[in-house]
Amino acid sequence: MNATINDPLAASNVRQYTSEMFEQLAQIDRAHSKEEMDQVIYLLLRLIGKGMRADRVFLFDSIDRERETYSNTFEWCEDGVEPQIDNLAELVRADMPCWLERFERGETIFIPNLEAVRTQMPSEYEILKAQSIRSVIAVPVFYRSNLSGFFGLDNPKAEITDAQVHLLNFIGGHLGSARENLRMLTLLEEKQKSLEQNLQAVQLEQRMLKVVCRDSTSVYRVDLMSNTAEIVKLEEHANAAGTLPREQAFFVYSDEIRRYYDSFIVKGTAPDFLQLLDAKNLMRELEKKDSVSRRYQSVPNAIGQIFFEVRVNKLQRTETSFQVLMDFRSVDEIVKEEREHQHALETALTESRMSYEVISAISKIYLYDLPYRSAHGIL
């Protein structure tokens, strides 16, 4: 955005300044960031100050609706005029009760002589007097019928006409809607960006989980508190592939665990399967350790695997959720190796026993024959 404007200092009438003001209002509508908006607002306040020959132009924003607190967020000062913005960072209703009451009714404040309102507006008088203000005009800034702030000018030396008051009110209304629209647009863009980043993070996490759990036939992210689960990985040959609702983003965890147990598990191999994987039990167990696991035997899946291990690893615990990663992997090869190893140990033990028995028998024969061999000198 090109925020440069022709310097209006040489202009000799309000009309030229008014034309420049409308140009800046158009620039406000084209602002694409808060920084651009802030720059244009300052230039607009400068034009108003020059056009009205004011000492100072100010803009206050509501910063806390519940406490009815307002802050001086923008300020332009003529050369030689002391800035007040740092002294007006937080004004509450008690500081300006008369002004806020009139602003809420949509009225303009015009005080050509400050001393004339000393008794009518005592709180406002004290604040204005401390700033060396002799006269002031201020208009409300609304957005959707809500008072969002006010702006005005101190010690204007130009004649204040009805047309100028209407112009200031128009500027106030435009400032309110344009700034709020930009704020909402910025929030939407930030939310969109956050959603995109979250989606990318989830996709990356799922890819990482698939790599980490590459030997698993199925992987699920489960929220034990809400009793919900989502599929991270599900091989086509897994038994669960025929029963899980793939078209749903989430499914009821307890229902599917029960269905899996009833349909596929050889009950005698894991009698405590449902008790172990009960959501409440898992939360208790995972408060004490990071993971739990259990082996079991199932009916053969599509590629003949029958021995499996379920592993549950704690991911995240908050006040409202208990996230775990649950995966099922085939342990057929492990079971086969363990059985072969067990068989080898049993064979070795049997052979060891046989050897012992042979040695024992020989020893007994030797000991039985020892007296005879000793008597005949055969040792």
Task: Please describe what this structure looks like.
By secondary structure, the protein is of the alpha+beta class. It is 46% helix and 22% strand. The protein has three domains: 8-188, Beta-Lactamase; 213-330, Beta-Lactamase (2-Layer Sandwich), CATH 3.30.450; 344-379. It has nine helices and eleven strands. The strands form two sheets. A six-stranded antiparallel beta sheet has the order 8-7-6-11-10-9, sandwiched between helices. Strands 2-1-5-4-3 form a five-stranded antiparallel beta sheet, with helices on both faces. Helix 1 packs antiparallel against helix 2.
Number of beta-strand segments: 11
Distance between the termini: 116 Å
Gyration radius, in Å: 42 Å
What sequence of helices (H) and strands (E) makes up the elements?
HHEEHEHEEHEEEHHHEEEH
Q: How many separate domains make up the residues? A: 3
Mean model confidence by pLDDT: 84
Content of β-strand:
15-25%
Give the CATH H-level superfamily of the largest domain: GAF domain
The SS-based structural class is alpha+beta
Largest sheet: 6 strands, antiparallel
The percentage helix is 40-55%
The CATH C-level class name of the largest domain: Alpha Beta
General shape: rod-shaped
